[in-house]
Amino acid sequence: MKDQADKLRKIISEINELELEEDQYKNILTHKSSRVITITSGKGGVGKTNFTINIGIVLAEMGYKVVIIDADLGLSNVDVVLGKTAKFNLSDVIKYKKGILDIIEEGPSGIKFISGGSGMQELIKLDKKQLIDLLTELGKLDETADIILIDTGAGLSDNVMSFVHAAKEVIIVTTPEPTAITDAYALIKTISYKDKNKNLKLVVNRAEDIEEAYNVLDKLNLVTERFLGLKLEKLGFILNDSNVTKAVKRQEPFVISYRKCEASKNIHDIAKTLVNNSQFNQTQSLGIKMFFNKFARMFNS
Ligand SMILES: Nc1ncnc2c1ncn2[C@@H]1O[C@H](COP(=O)(O)OP(=O)(O)OP(=O)(O)O)[C@@H](O)[C@H]1O
Ligand SMILES: [Mg+2]
Prior knowledge:
Helix content: 40-55%
Number of helices: 15
CATH class: Alpha Beta
Structural class: alpha/beta
Order of helices and strands: HHEHEHHHEEHHEHEHEHEHHHH
Largest sheet: 8 strands, mixed
Bound molecules: adenosine-5'-triphosphate, magnesium ion
Low-confidence stretches: none
Strand order of the largest sheet: 3-4-2-5-1-6-7-8
Number of domains: 1
Oligomer: single chain
């Protein structure tokens, strides 16, 4: 009897939690919450997945507990880059009631990863009870992870944009190619329509040299500030480095295979900036539970 009453009370409190707006939620936040960062780009193939995995590993080596969620609905390939096959995905939690901690895979240096798989599509069709069940499971990640990195697909599709809007922090990756820069700008513009205060961080990947990298970082920041009234955080750059491609072919993260290469050094610098000098920090994060709550609500509205 007591068990049932406890269960009921828990469900009622969680239903209320679902209805809360962000600032109200923050006030009642009693549990630990992870720092959730969405990684995205305007143009495809600019290096998001490699960036996510390699920075995840460096952060883990620095002592943070890191979970990567592969949320690319098209071509998920976190596991391909890691050289590991994910046995389960989020669908196993939604449909087959597996625990979130049972579907987590272990990667190098203690990073954990979860494949979204078809679960990402199912997520948007959940009824309230199913959503509460899923959020309860996801809440367990807040207890276990310091930083959760969400690797998305490219472009302005509804689902990618929902991952962007649900996150407090977003890292936008671009290369110095004009097409990638134009697409990054279009993405930032779309974000700015909905949220002018989003913490947007910019990473330039595959730069020929430091000068080219800063040229892109500065120019993109200048136009977004002037035309969109939005300030970007310049998180850093990664040089174009043939070791990245070599590591991809070996299905090993380059920060492990080629620890001393230029790209690895750049990733270490970015990781340090992210945890030490970012305008946004752990105390402002709302955790993965609120993230998925916002994500699901966006689709239901
Ligand atoms: N710094 C770099 N130097 C050299 N090559 C790189 C670098 N970063 C990425 N690449 C190359 O770009 C390819 C695509 O990278 P990745 O799969 O990470 O991009 P993505 O943005 O995740 O793509 P998608 O949009 O398809 O998800 C890699 O396989 C690698 O060959
Ligand atoms: Mg990718």
